[in-house]
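Our working data are protein records whose layout never changes between entries. Instead of coordinates, the fold is spelled out as a row of discrete tokens. Here is such a record, shown just as it appears in the course material:
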Amino acid sequence: MRSINSNSELNILVDVRPFKAITYTPKAGKTEELITQPYDKIDVTMQKAYYALSPYNYCRLILPMEEDKYTMANQRLQQWLKEGAMTKEPQPALFISRQEFTLNGKQYSRIGIIAALRLYPYSENMVFPHEATYKAPKADRLNMLRTVQKDLEPVFLMYQDPEEATIKFMAEVSETQPVTQITDALGVKHTIWKVTETQKIRQLQAILAPKPLVINDGHHRYESAVAYRDEMRAKGDWSEDDAFNFYMCYMVPVQQEGLIVLPTHRLLKNYKLTPEVVAGLSCFFEITEIQPTVEAIERYLRNHLCEHAFCVYDGVKACGLTLKHDKFVYDFIDANVSKETKVFDVVILRDIVFKHVLKTGQLNIDETILYERWTKDALAKVDCREASIAFLVNPVSAKTVAEVAVQHQVLPEKSTDFYPKLVSGLVLMDIGASEKLPA
């Protein structure tokens, strides 16, 4: 299996550049009242709460409540710049961003680089996706780019750094005075440092140049940005330094303990754990009835971490499912799936449980399938009948995702949940037609 250690054999160099960031000013108020979770993590309740926090809350840009949300976002941003609630910095910079957080009682730290990354179609083998995307979110973000002409939220990527060159670089920068330090509503501490010295920027560019990248979060944003770039180029008279050829990205090395991937549990509507369904599942899985509690479900998953195991909950009972080792089982996994991805739990769940046993057909996000990060939230949605059945899964490691992605293998939608998310609103990037980036 090819690693993502180097593109040198392909004579490919990744182009990373500093940019003139747009940021909030003290006039906008307390940063805690301005920042948000990413747009696709904001539900209606959160949206209302963000609006109530501040007239300058970032939710009003990335996910406006108003009907013509794209126009409203653009008008607001222009007004905030005019009022001085936001400002565009005069000097191009790269940023180092660190998140410190606690998960299951253990403390972690994750650090990465925020910079303008040249956009590469996947066919160029520079940037690799790891999961499939939906059409609707891509259309939404493309419309936002067309109207606002700003990168409002970064794409989150990872790269290999076995020599720890970027890790050492970031460690040195993190010993200096940060420009921002904030703790978000989930208790994650975010610290940002700015790098403006040309020599240091050149040093980091040289280190990153031969490193292919894998998208962790933001596939829809990335693919929309490539489409927008192509639209802008089609208008004619463009240069390689035009900002719309790039996208604001947050890039982290795989070699970090703090690069955490959480499971993404699947919740279906209109399905039940009937005797017929249980009989169908028993052809492929060893089935164990367990207590229908968060603790029992998480214990089962933890105890069967490397055994292709799931739990299913329908509001009344819960069962643990562990895949049988019979060879015929894999015949039911989509023939188009590679041998590398056939062993992924989310692929087994999709092709055996959903397609073959439940015969779900095409599942549409928010209409027939929901996704949840935490076991307790998944069970709660079944209990309140937002969904009828939940399938709980184990997470996949970041290292495995990186290795499979460079084989051009794409996992099902929402296969991973990199945690924590970057908060939105600390840095944004201008990609207007007149904006240039320094080479």
